[in-house]
Design brief:
By secondary structure, this protein is of the alpha+beta class. 16% of the residues lie in helices and 30% in strands. The protein has 1 helix and 4 strands, in the order βαβββ. A 4-stranded mixed sheet has the order 1-4-3-2, with helices on one face. Strand 3 and strand 4 form a beta hairpin. The longest helix is centred in the middle third of the chain and has 12 residues.
Amino acid sequence: MLDTDAGSAVSGKVLSHAIWAEDGGELAKFYAAALGAQVAEPYRDEHGRPAAFPVWGGDVMYVFWSAATFKAPLAAG
Protein backbone atom coordinates (compact mmCIF):
# COMPACT_ATOMS: atom_id res chain seq x y z
CA MET A 1 0.00 0.00 0.00
CA LEU A 2 1.34 3.43 -0.91
CA ASP A 3 1.37 6.04 1.83
CA THR A 4 -0.01 9.25 0.34
CA ASP A 5 0.47 11.38 3.47
CA ALA A 6 2.17 14.63 2.43
CA GLY A 7 4.53 14.33 5.42
CA SER A 8 5.83 10.88 4.48
CA ALA A 9 9.03 10.34 2.56
CA VAL A 10 9.53 7.89 -0.23
CA SER A 11 12.63 5.79 0.11
CA GLY A 12 14.21 3.30 -2.23
CA LYS A 13 17.36 1.65 -3.38
CA VAL A 14 19.25 1.99 -6.66
CA LEU A 15 19.35 -1.46 -8.23
CA SER A 16 21.35 -0.73 -11.37
CA HIS A 17 24.03 1.56 -12.72
CA ALA A 18 24.74 2.34 -16.38
CA ILE A 19 28.33 2.88 -17.48
CA TRP A 20 29.23 4.00 -21.00
CA ALA A 21 32.50 3.05 -22.70
CA GLU A 22 33.97 2.65 -26.15
CA ASP A 23 33.84 -1.15 -25.68
CA GLY A 24 31.26 -2.03 -23.06
CA GLY A 25 31.92 -5.75 -23.43
CA GLU A 26 35.59 -5.47 -22.50
CA LEU A 27 34.84 -3.17 -19.58
CA ALA A 28 32.13 -5.58 -18.39
CA LYS A 29 34.62 -8.47 -18.46
CA PHE A 30 37.07 -6.44 -16.38
CA TYR A 31 34.50 -5.53 -13.72
CA ALA A 32 33.00 -9.03 -13.70
CA ALA A 33 36.45 -10.45 -12.90
CA ALA A 34 36.97 -7.83 -10.18
CA LEU A 35 33.58 -8.63 -8.62
CA GLY A 36 33.97 -12.40 -8.98
CA ALA A 37 30.92 -12.39 -11.26
CA GLN A 38 30.09 -13.20 -14.87
CA VAL A 39 28.84 -11.09 -17.75
CA ALA A 40 25.20 -11.99 -18.39
CA GLU A 41 23.52 -12.30 -21.80
CA PRO A 42 24.00 -8.93 -23.54
CA TYR A 43 21.17 -6.65 -24.55
CA ARG A 44 21.14 -6.13 -28.31
CA ASP A 45 20.67 -2.98 -30.36
CA GLU A 46 18.12 -2.50 -33.14
CA HIS A 47 20.44 -4.36 -35.55
CA GLY A 48 20.86 -7.38 -33.27
CA ARG A 49 24.42 -6.51 -32.23
CA PRO A 50 25.42 -6.82 -28.56
CA ALA A 51 25.26 -3.30 -27.13
CA ALA A 52 24.87 -3.51 -23.34
CA PHE A 53 26.52 -6.03 -21.05
CA PRO A 54 25.00 -6.67 -17.61
CA VAL A 55 27.06 -7.76 -14.61
CA TRP A 56 25.44 -8.57 -11.26
CA GLY A 57 27.36 -7.63 -8.12
CA GLY A 58 25.24 -8.92 -5.25
CA ASP A 59 21.79 -7.43 -5.67
CA VAL A 60 23.01 -4.55 -7.88
CA MET A 61 23.26 -4.74 -11.66
CA TYR A 62 25.90 -2.80 -13.59
CA VAL A 63 25.20 -2.36 -17.30
CA PHE A 64 28.16 -1.53 -19.52
CA TRP A 65 27.04 0.12 -22.76
CA SER A 66 29.14 0.28 -25.91
CA ALA A 67 29.17 3.65 -27.61
CA ALA A 68 31.25 3.90 -30.79
CA THR A 69 31.53 7.67 -30.40
CA PHE A 70 32.43 7.57 -26.69
CA LYS A 71 35.18 9.97 -25.65
CA ALA A 72 36.61 9.76 -22.15
CA PRO A 73 36.46 13.05 -20.24
CA LEU A 74 39.69 15.03 -20.09
CA ALA A 75 41.49 15.03 -16.77
CA ALA A 76 41.30 18.32 -14.89
CA GLY A 77 44.47 20.06 -14.26
